[in-house]
């Protein structure tokens, strides 16, 4: 049995990540890895995107008493519509929506994603919230061995493909996009140096922190696959990876916008309304997006039997995960909402 198959939930985050790092680097040097650009499947562009949209949005009550934050009206329509069109314009085609609170409304609105040119699947928290980290871990069967992560309340204009290419070239299991915030939009929580995040702490930021996490990240599934506790925050993962020099960074010059607070909502609405990308005609008729997009989306690895799973190796641990060729539309953890 792999030493990481069972991890004591009482271990601290740094201890878990230390075990993962030691296991992944045992017996080989980083320089011996083939360039990820030459590996088919997990490194292909475009990757899948996990969109985290499961929170309770208590800071926005009463706006979110009966609807999820993603469906708050911004510039004339639900924020999620603007976000999905922005995701499409960035070149992405497959989205996994990680939902919880009032998630059925999100699924009812976005459907299979075809009217936005996307293919959307859903991962529900179930009976209890899983946290941002737990929600991602639960969605791994839908995401594959490498994927992007974005928050469901963020409006981000940084081009996505350069971020993904930097992640592949960095030879690290995770990457965080950072912005030189200087405490202007929230407390700066990242110490960024020479292309790496060397410290992350959103609970107790220090004066040496000039940057903030932008909200667009990349991950190898192996980072999350062996967590045995159901609930955990993604911030715990970033802190541990940074501590062990396993978190690459990508600096953007574009500020972020978010609808997680009332001041942020007002700023985001102004930015969305002014953006030429906000109302482009990225809604499709029932027939879906152009055929070449469908072909690329449903032909992840050529030559594999369509009725059998695609087996993708986890780069860091050597573990494997089965990715269905025809990705199921919904995963529900615990009892959760009914299909």
SS element count, helices: 10
Please write the string of helix (H) and strand (E) elements: HEEEHEHEHHEEHEEEEHHEEHHEEE
- Over all CA atoms, what is the radius of gyration? 19 Å
Strand content: 15-25%
- CATH class reads Alpha Beta
Query: Uncertain regions: pLDDT < 50 for 5+ in a row?
Result: 1-40, 280-327, 335-339
Shape: globular
Specify the CATH architecture.
Alpha-Beta Complex
Structural class: alpha/beta
**What is the H level of CATH, i.e. the homologous superfamily?**
Spore Coat Polysaccharide Biosynthesis Protein SpsA, Chain A
Rounded average pLDDT = 75
- Outline the biggest β-sheet: 8 strands, mixed
Percent helix, as a range, is 25-40%
As for the number of domains, it is: 1
Total count of strands: 16
Cα separation of the termini: 35 Å
Strand order of the largest sheet: 12-8-11-6-1-4-5-16
Find the CATH topology: Spore Coat Polysaccharide Biosynthesis Protein SpsA, Chain A
Summarize this structure briefly.
It is built from 10 helices and 16 strands. It has helices at 13-25, 79-89, 103-110, 131-138, 140-143, 160-170, 222-225, 234-243, 262-274, 291-297; strands at residues 48-53, 73-74, 77-78, 94-99, 119-124, 146-151, 154-155, 174-180, 190-193, 196-200, 211-220, 247-252, 257-258, 310-313, 320-323, 330-332.
Model description:
The protein is an alpha/beta fold and 339 residues long. The chain has one domain (13-332): Spore Coat Polysaccharide Biosynthesis Protein SpsA, Chain A, CATH 3.90.550.10. 26% of the residues lie in helices and 22% in strands. It has ten helices and 16 strands. The chain has helices spanning 13-25, 79-89, 103-110, 131-138, 140-143, 160-170, 222-225, 234-243, 262-274, 291-297; strands spanning 48-53, 73-74, 77-78, 94-99, 119-124, 146-151, 154-155, 174-180, 190-193, 196-200, 211-220, 247-252, 257-258, 310-313, 320-323, 330-332. Strands 12-8-11-6-1-4-5-16 form an eight-stranded mixed beta sheet, sandwiched between helices. Helix 1 packs across helix 8 (234-243). The two termini are 35 Å apart. Mean pLDDT is 75; it is low at 1-40, 280-327 and 335-339.
């Amino acid at each position: 049995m792999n030493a990481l198959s069972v991890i004591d939930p009482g271990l601290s985050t740094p201890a878990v990540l230390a075990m993962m790092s030691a296991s992944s680097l045992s017996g080989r040097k980083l320089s011996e890895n083939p360039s990820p650009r030459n590996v088919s499947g997990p490194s292909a562009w475009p990757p899948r995107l996990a969109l985290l949209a499961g929170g309770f949005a208590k800071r926005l009550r009463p706006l979110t008493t009966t609807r999820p934050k993603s469906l708050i009206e911004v510039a004339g329509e639900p924020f999620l519509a603007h976000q999905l069109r922005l995701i499409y314009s960035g070149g992405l085609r497959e989205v996994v929506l990680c939902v919880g609170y009032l998630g059925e409304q999100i699924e009812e609105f976005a459907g299979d994603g075809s009217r936005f040119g996307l293919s959307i699947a859903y991962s529900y928290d179930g009976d209890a919230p899983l946290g941002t980290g737990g929600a991602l871990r639960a969605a791994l069967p839908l995401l594959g061995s490498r994927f992007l992560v974005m928050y469901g309340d963020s409006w981000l204009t940084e081009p996505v493909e350069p971020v993904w290419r930097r992640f592949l070239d960095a030879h690290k299991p995770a990457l965080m996009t950072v912005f030189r915030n200087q405490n202007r939009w929230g407390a700066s929580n990242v110490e960024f140096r020479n292309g790496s995040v060397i410290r992350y702490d959103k609970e107790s930021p220090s004066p040496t922190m000039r940057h903030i996490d932008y909200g667009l990240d990349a991950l190898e599934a192996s980072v999350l696959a062996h967590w045995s506790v159901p609930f955990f925050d993604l911030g715990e993962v970033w802190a541990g990876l940074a501590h062990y020099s396993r978190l690459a960074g990508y600096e953007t010059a574009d500020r972020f916008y978010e609808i997680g607070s009332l001041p942020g909502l007002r700023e985001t609405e102004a930015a969305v309304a002014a953006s030429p990308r906000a109302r482009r005609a990225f809604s499709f008729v029932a027939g879906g997006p152009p055929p070449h997009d469908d072909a690329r989306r449903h032909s992840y690895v050529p030559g594999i039997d369509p009725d059998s799973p695609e087996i993708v190796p986890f780069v860091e641990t050597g573990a494997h995960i089965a990715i269905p060729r025809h990705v199921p539309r919904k995963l529900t953890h615990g009892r959760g909402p009914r299909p």
